[in-house]
Amino acid sequence: MVDRGTATEVPYQSISATSEILFEASSVPAMGYRVYDLVPGSPAAVPSGMLTVTPTTLENDLYRLVVDAATGALTSVYDKARGKELIDGTTGYKFNELASSTKSQMDGGQAPVASHPASASTVVDWSGPIEASIKVTRTGTPHVETTYRLARNTDRVEIENVLDRNAMPYVPYATGSQAWTVTLPFDVHNFEIRSETTTRFLDPLHDGFVRDNVFDWHNVEHTLSFHDAVNGIDYAVDAVDAHSFQHFNTLAPPSWSHANALVLSRLEDRVDEYEFADNSIGPFTIEPGAPTTLRSTHEIRSTGPSFDPAASSKFGFEALEPIQARLLTHRPGNLPPASASFFTVDAPNVLLYTAKNADDGDGLILRLTELAGTATTAGIDSDTFTLSAPERVRQNETPGTPVPLGMSGNTVLVPLAAYETATVRVRAARSWAPLVLYADKDAVSGTVKLHWTGGVSPYTVSRALDPGFTSGVSTPYDEQPAASFDDPTLVDGNDAFYLVH
């Protein structure tokens, strides 16, 4: 595998079960792409850094994990860069063990009750050059499986948990409901909290927002961040109702819990009986046919004793919105061949989180928000489009008087106040003329004569025996400046298909 932009080989890991490969795509442009080529030959690239795994230990350059073989919980998550153990061993809870609270326990603000497995076994799951993992299998518990993962040179611990709803106790009407979680006791105390919404991070302890009640849980878009005077944690989960600290609480307490960072992510609320309209009480199913296996992936990053909104937001997006890879047999069109950004923002404290067609069909809508509480002017640019006629519009795009925005070259200038979100309409045109291909033949010389207009130099001509470019593929004209090519392979009665890009 070769990075087309740098011409350097990229190490990868083969996944035999799915016939896929795993590799690290670095420096991918914002809202854009980077191209990697699979070429013939034996892989020779050796990844930098360390990555080791045994049935009970997992380590890269940044973290060292130790698994309790008897329970499958973690006994140590050690931050090697800061020389800090992340687990608080004094809470009475293991790290990543199952626990639950009934409705009456939540009403009383009681701590959840741990649920211990009858047995557990640990094995090395993956031991590749890019990623390594340990798989835990348990019996006698709804917490049937866990996979712990570390990737080489990656500042993130990943924990995938599997819960079996059928193994959870039946919840009668008198009990009401039972909430299930895994306990994550971090060694962080008397801490600050930042919970990410769709437009900014909230600071519930100090933001001064008027609230009728204190709801002692946190609904988070991507990242829940918390830190004390020594260190901090960025935390994200892909399938969760809400996060709490120390205990679940259904009633409004006087303040948010922030003494000890025992994180409880509410993964499942089980309710099995219902009072029907005729006053009868009996079993019911909330979502008939829904899977009974519940999967959740927990992402953890150790931080310093402060909050960096841009870094925390980046962590959450990378953890929960992974980059999608697409395998291309050929590359049609005129996009830059190695990498490009469709839209990029030059201000590090500004997040561009929406790019879509306008509801009324007039141009594109871009939404961006200032994260750090500092007024700024953000510049939006594009490697692939010529931008024009930018304007501020209402958040929901309803009719109103737009506010024109300035430009500097191809850059749209968007003034933003602290924590402000802006919705911008912009018109975007392709920055190249469409490529139009013409073909003729010279039967005497046996030549196919190609020429074309538009596109972007240099040009490449590919030839194949079928329109899907799967048979007899060759490249007779590679990265050349001229917009024409004579191919001396004409044989009447034979089909040839050409792609110019």
Q: Strand fraction band?
A: over 45%
How confident is the prediction overall: mean pLDDT? 92
For the termini, the CA-CA separation is 22 Å
Strand order of the largest sheet: 14-15-16-17-28-22-21-19-20
Can you tell me the overall shape?
globular
Uncertain residue ranges: none
Helix content: under 10%
Main sheet characteristics: 9 strands, antiparallel
DSSP E strands, number: 44
Secondary structure class reads mainly beta
Number of helical stretches of at least 4 residues = 2
What radius of gyration results from the CA coordinates? Answer: 28 Å
Question: How is this structure best summarized?
Answer:
By secondary structure, the protein is mostly beta strands. The protein contains 2 helices and 44 strands.
Structural topology:
Elements lengths: L1 E2 L4 E2 L3 E3 L4 E3 L9 E3 L1 E2 L13 E3 L3 E4 L2 E5 L6 E6 L4 E2 L11 E6 H5 L5 E3 L3 E9 L3 E9 L3 E9 L5 E8 L13 E12 L2 E5 L4 E2 L21 E4 L4 E6 L5 E3 L14 E6 L2 E3 L2 E3 L5 E3 L9 E11 L5 H12 L18 E3 L2 E2 L4 E8 L6 E7 L5 E6 L3 E9 L9 E2 L2 E2 L2 E6 L4 E10 L5 E7 L4 E7 L5 E6 L9 E7 L3 E4 L9 E4 L1
Structural write-up:
Helices cover about 5% and strands about 45% of the residues. It is mostly beta strands and about 500 residues long. A nine-stranded antiparallel beta sheet has the order 14-15-16-17-28-22-21-19-20, covered by helices on one side. Strands 12, 13, 18, 23, 24 and 25 form a six-stranded antiparallel beta sheet that branches. The protein has a five-stranded antiparallel beta sheet with strand order 7-8-9-10-11, with no helix packed on it. The relative contact order is 0.10. The protein starts with a strand and ends with a strand.
